[in-house]
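Hey, I'm writing a tutorial for new members on how sequence and structure tokens pair up, and I'd like a real worked example in the thread rather than a made-up one. If someone can provide the structure for the chain below, I'll link this post from the tutorial.
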Amino acid sequence: MRIPKVRCREIVESDIEAIADLLARGFSGRTRGYWTRGLLRQSERPVPPGYPRYGYLLENDREPVGVLLLLYTSRIEAGRAVIRCNVSSWYVEREFRIYATLLTSTAQKNKQVTYTNISPAVPTWPIIEAQGYKIYCSGLYFSVPLLSRCEPGATIETIAPDVRSISGLPQPDLELLTSHARYGCLAFICHTNDGPLPFVMTPKRMRGGTIPLPALQLVYCRDIADYVRCAGAIGRFLMRHGKPVVVLDANGPVPGLAGVYTESRGRKYFKGPNQPGLTDLTETELVLYGS
């Protein structure tokens, strides 16, 4: 009987084609093109020094049999630099799943990093919690911004990937908007009497028919109060694009915002020193790969 020669190692550039094939086999609802597009985006984005660009794989006799994609980001929170890692897509071929813990233990060993899981399947919730993850988002709020109040004088300006400056907008906010516009997100600012407020949204694929309308997911704003404040203006703007619904992470109904809250989907977890905010899904699988 031949004993498998399984090892876990970092994914490198030469693995990409085989990884795309493996993920396409493992996720029947996703095309190979879906994975190659996302992996290309991972290849082009900045990664903190010393951290893997793509994640880790399991290989048996030099053939990939398992993969865990990771998205590392460096950011400033409360005035200091922190590292966040979105633990993204995971797949191991059935006959090698006894080795799957090699992937998770290797990928989550750094206690200085905050790890997030933003799309856990319901059956995996107990497993994730057993690994030390905590819930930071309990559900989703399906908002209809057109039905909310409108800030007097508020106007919307879309941001293209090549915009160099916006009066009154800090450069880090502009860089966030333009980088996500390059990912295909809808990046815009709401001009208010107090200055411009940044927003990023991305198309939301609806499953199960909860809201049978075209929807966007809120990827970023500084604070949920900014979205509530600008909801009316945003609603009118989005209706011109045929997008009446905006989905946002929430832990209950959002005061001042027309919509419906549900805990049947949208749960998100984190593990590490810095709990993520509810209005920041930047540089995650949601924007690099899509919902």
